[in-house]
Automatic annotation (TrEMBL):
Positions of the Luciferase-like domain: 1-300
Pfam families per record: Bac_luciferase
Listed name of the protein: LLM class flavin-dependent oxidoreductase
Cellular component, GO, one term: cytosol
Matches recorded under PANTHER family: LUCIFERASE-LIKE MONOOXYGENASE (PTHR30137)
Gene Ontology MF: a single term: oxidoreductase activity, acting on paired donors, with incorporation or reduction of molecular oxygen
Organism of origin: Bacillus mesophilum
InterPro entries tied to this protein: Bact_Lucif_Oxidored, CmoO-like, Luciferase-like_dom, Luciferase-like_sf
Family stated for the protein in its record: To bacterial alkanal monooxygenase alpha and beta chains.
């Protein structure tokens, strides 16, 4: 089973944004050492406690200090941008780091309505035209516009020997159908919504099979996972992330991911305690054997080709250790 990393570049309560971004670099380096297939970093805008609004900048920083692990966006929020500019940026990354670049695409706003307005006057129009934007982007990446197309003579230079590999990220049938129609790989965000997940992924495969494409359908399932030597330790390090989610709903998350001690001492209402219990049931945590069992179940549930793990902890060392233990259990080390 292939394993990968999804990083949201969270800022802990004791960190600066710079330190959080440096921790993201170290995570990619650890992932490479442990045998993970790819490292992706997400795009967010003015969301308290998340440090990366520009994956393409971080990927150049990370690519220069890693050697073999695939690196990519999870995801570029395409409705904000012209496909040509995105193609230029990722073609440049693919030129610098040959056969290592993925370009994950999403249509979510990734921030508040005010941030969306600051980024673009036409975000909703971009969402509506998302399928057409993907078409243009794929043509720019493959350098294969029809001769009569207005962009036929426009190249997204530099042209790499191996173009970036495109992916579509989503949690709905709409995204699955679109990925299948476009003939690109699909990532289902199980950590965001597991509602009808297997049926959505199966819809992707069905649509994909009805149209001839260059490659076979490929599915990654992204899940929230916390692993430690003991189940108790895993639950403890997970608590910081779960309490932080509740704090953000209170609009109190600007102080960053809380320490385990502070998370334990955070007063919760009855409704928040109920929410916390439900959140624990949706994540995967435990000792290495328990985590592998749950991940294997997830893989079998979706018939996934690959699993992508997102882990947010207060102490980066707990995060690195979680990924190490999982890789060791899968004998990736």
């Amino acid at each position: 089973m292939k394993l990968s990393i999804l990083d949201q570049s969270p800022i802990s309560a004791n960190q600066t944004a710079k330190e959080a971004l440096e921790a993201s670099l170290k995570l990619a380096q650890h992932g490479e050492k442990y045998g993970y297939s790819r490292y992706w970093i997400a795009e967010h805008h003015d969301l308290s406690g998340l440090a990366c609004p520009a994956p393409e900048i971080m990927l150049s920083y990370i690519g220069a200090q890693t050697n073999t692990i695939r690196i990519g966006s999870g995801a570029v929020l395409l409705p904000y941008y012209k496909p040509y500019k995105v193609a230029e940026a990722f073609n440049m990354l693919a030129t610098l780091f040959p056969d290592r670049i993925d370009i994950g695409l999403g249509r979510a706003p990734g921030g508040s309505a005010e941030a969306s307005q600051a980024l673009s006057d036409h975000f909703l129009k971009g969402v509506w035209s998302f399928p057409d934007s993907i078409n243009d982007l794929l043509h720019f990446l493959d350098n294969d516009f029809p001769e009569d197309h207005p962009y036929a003579k426009v190249k997204a230079a530099p042209i790499p020997k191996q173009p970036p590999h495109p992916w579509l990220l989503g949690t709905s049938k709409k995204s699955a159908i679109l990925a299948g129609e476009k003939g690109i790989s699909y990532v289902f965000g199980h950590f965001m919504s597991d509602k009808d997940g297997p049926a959505i992924v199966e819809q992707y495969r069905e649509v994909y099979s009805k149209t001839p494409h260059k490659e076979k359908p490929y599915v990654i399932i992204a899940a929230t996972v916390f692993c430690a030597e003991t189940t108790e330790k895993a639950e403890e390090i997970a608590l910081s992330s779960l309490i932080w989610s509740i704090q953000r709903e209170r609009t109190e998350g600007n102080k960053g991911v809380p320490s385990i001690e502070n998370a334990k001492n955070t007063p919760l209402s009855f409704e928040e305690k109920t929410k916390l219990k439900a959140m624990k049931e949706k994540i995967i945590f435990g000792n290495p054997a328990e985590v592998k069992q749950r991940l294997d179940q997830l893989q079998n549930q979706y018939h996934a080709d690959e699993l992508m793990i997102v882990t947010i902890t207060y102490d980066p060392s707990d995060k690195y250790e979680s990924y190490r233990l999982i890789a060791k259990e899968y004998k990736e080390l």
